[in-house]
Structures are given as C-alpha cells and as structure tokens.
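Input record (one chain):
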Amino acid sequence: MTVPTATTSTQPRRPWRSVVAVLAGFVAVAVLSLGTDQVLHALQIYPPWGQAMADSLFLLATAYRIVYGVVGGYVTARLAPDRPMKHAVALGIVGLVVSTLGVVATIGKGPAFGPLWYPIVIALTALPCAWLGGVLYRPRVH
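The corresponding structure, as predicted from the sequence alone:
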C-alpha cells in the first residue's frame, strides 16, 4: 500500500535576479535623472555645468526626480522574480542610503552644490517613490 505524501512546490530562490531587479531600478533612476539634467543643460534651461542654479530650477529637478523614483520602483517590481513590493522597497532603501550620503557630502559646501533642502528632499522621497512604483506595478493574472 502506498501512502500519499504531500509535496510542496517551492520555486528555487533567485538572489541574482533580485539583485538585478533592484540594480535595474537604480540604473533607470540614475540614467533618466542625469539624462534629463544633460538635456536641460543643452537646452540652456539650466546654466552650464559648474555654475550655480536658481532654487526654482532645483524645484524642477526635484519634480522629475520624484517621477523617476516612481519609475524605478515600477521597473524593480516588474523585474522582481517574486514579492515585487519587497523589491521596490529594497530599491527605496538603497535610494535613501545613497541620497543620505549625498546630504552628508554637501553639508556646508556652499551654493556651488545648491541649497541644502534639495538633497534632503531627494533623500526623504526615495523610499515613498519606490514604494509607489511597486504599488503601481500590478502583475496581470491570466
């Protein structure tokens, strides 16, 4: 007599796919942000590199970096092998850490690095933006 056994179907862990998902979201944010910066400099909306910018231009930079942070969270969630929200939040934590290092690096450096509120806002919005990107990603169930 054969005794039926319960089998559980577990998918193997894919740590490299998780790392790639978070890295892809980070790269998306960086490339979009720096690319937009470059275009705005080329269009002379921003002054030449190395020259001080008006606070209103930092508001513009903050606005598109927030949007790109959401895009990065979405990309990360979309590429995650499982638990897309966990991956999006991981991206947000990475963004928070990197942005906080930016705050520390620019404190007391003067107007050449822009107003102090700018890197602080970027740091404070990193996690919520990535989280929102994860929320906006909704895997389609067929």
